[in-house]
Amino acid sequence: xxxxxxxxxxxxxxxxxxxxxxxxxxxxxxxxxxxxxxxxxxxxxxxxxxxxxxxxxxxxxxxxxxxxxxxxxxxxxxxxxxxxxxxxxxxxxxxxxxxxxxxxxxxxxxxxxxxxxxxxxxxxxxxxxxxxxxxxxxxxxxxxxxxxxxxxxxxxxxxxxxxxxxxxxxxxxxxxxxxxxxxxxxxxxxxxxxxxxxxxxxxxxxxxxxxxxxxxxxxxxxxxxxxxxxxxxxxxxxxxxxxxxxxxxxxxxxxxxxxxxxxxxxxxxxxxxxxxxxxxxxxxxxxxxxxxxxxxxxxxxxxxxxxxxxxxxxxxxxxxxxxxxxxxxxxxxxxxxxxxxxxxxxxxxxxxxxxxxxxxxxxxxxxxxxxxxxxxxxxxxxxxxxxxxxxxxxxxxxxxxxxxxxxxxxxxxxxxxxxxxxxxxxxxxxxxxxxxxxxxxxxxxxxxxxxxxxxxxxxxxxxxxxxxxxxxxxxxxxxxxxxxxxxxxxxxxxxxxxxxxxxxxxxxxxxxxxxxxxxxxxxxxxxxxxxxxxx
Length: 535
What we know:
Blueprint: H1 12-21, H2 37-52, H3 57-69, E1 83-98, E2 103-104, E3 109-110, E4 123-136, E5 139-150, E6 153-154, H4 158-167, E7 187-188, E8 191-205, E9 208-214, E10 237-243, H5 252-256, E11 259-267, E12 278-289, E13 292-302, H6 312-320, H7 327-330, E14 338-348, E15 356-365, E16 378-385, E17 395-403, E18 428-429, E19 432-433, E20 442-454, E21 457-468, E22 477-490, E23 494-507, E24 511-526, E25 531-533
Antiparallel strand pairs: 1-4, 1-24, 1-25, 2-3, 4-5, 5-8, 6-7, 8-9, 9-10, 10-11, 11-12, 12-13, 13-14, 14-15, 15-16, 16-17, 17-20, 18-19, 20-21, 21-22, 22-23, 23-24
């Protein structure tokens, strides 16, 4: 039966990740998300005996909340689902920001990140939206739309915008390359938009979801971001084939274990040099043991107006060509595109597999895989401790470090990771980086300390740090954030999320001296009961 994807900003993912790192959900592929509602049910069903038979009350509480959330997918555990439809959520979020902000993931940094590329500015910001779901037989439809408001603001001066455009090799900084969505210049108008955040029609066939429209992609095991694809930028419209259930392949799975794979193809927006390129992504992930998972992924950006045509020939050339590209070929109609390769793994550590998970996510430019050239790879690595002994069992800790400032001669002036000499707006969609918010030629990381009140409620403190290299952004940048967040439920269907974030940043090329801002946000979400018509 077909099943809709669960949005990446759902509470389901941190809950599932905690269950996994407690030693359950052995069939989960944490480096390849989103998951469908039905695939999550299957993971829970396969671990039900282990969870309910354990003495881990935290795991049992999470399990109960997840079963309630997905009860329409498998009523009474294994009964047939029937037709499921209705309003899945209604929500509104108000965010007030005082002080100057950063909103430039391709250069200086972002005050708000992993937020679907939503607009924001100093002052009052609001999003108000809905999501609807329909599942019948092999078909599923999920639509999520919202009104987005951000006040007017003031961006970069012309001189700064011209310098950043020069760093991107976009010359001259003049129409049609002015304005650029990657460079917020001048007086920025207020935003009052209606946007489809997700909208996809899917058909289920032999363990695959074949879909068209807007869907999330988070291709990596980390929480802070994913080097290949995250929800930092607005989702692209794409055609997608996703093996959502683990597949056992004769002989191969004896060695590498079950496999999942994902492919999607679509267009990028907000590029001017060249305009309207296309992209496709392929990923394969394996589980050779219940505690170890690894995956290979590749993204190719190709085509664009007045460059290489988007044809079956150029698609196949990029898909199969693993050779270096000559300068003549790069600027010709035979350009295979900007090629980025990713390798990631996660490992529930020996002797503490119910407590600690280690993971790393690498991405490199113009290498078949980062494994072949680790010094050329940007990466995000982390350690997740899902519980502590005794009375501290509701506590978890996650630490991640990331860098895109590789120790190689090519890594200079921001022209390596997430950049390409032809596709000059690089790894972006509508101005935001599609991968890790750490951006180009930068170092930093995250820390989260979370106290879980129940399976879907928690209090969290987090910290973020980022620094851009001085040879990329003259005089460099420094960014620090401290954030407190609370998620509380009122009954099973009303969720209140509140957060306070303080940010201090320095970017002398933009504003002199230390700058700071405070962002206070409240989000109220109602999850109405879906309707189900038994078959």
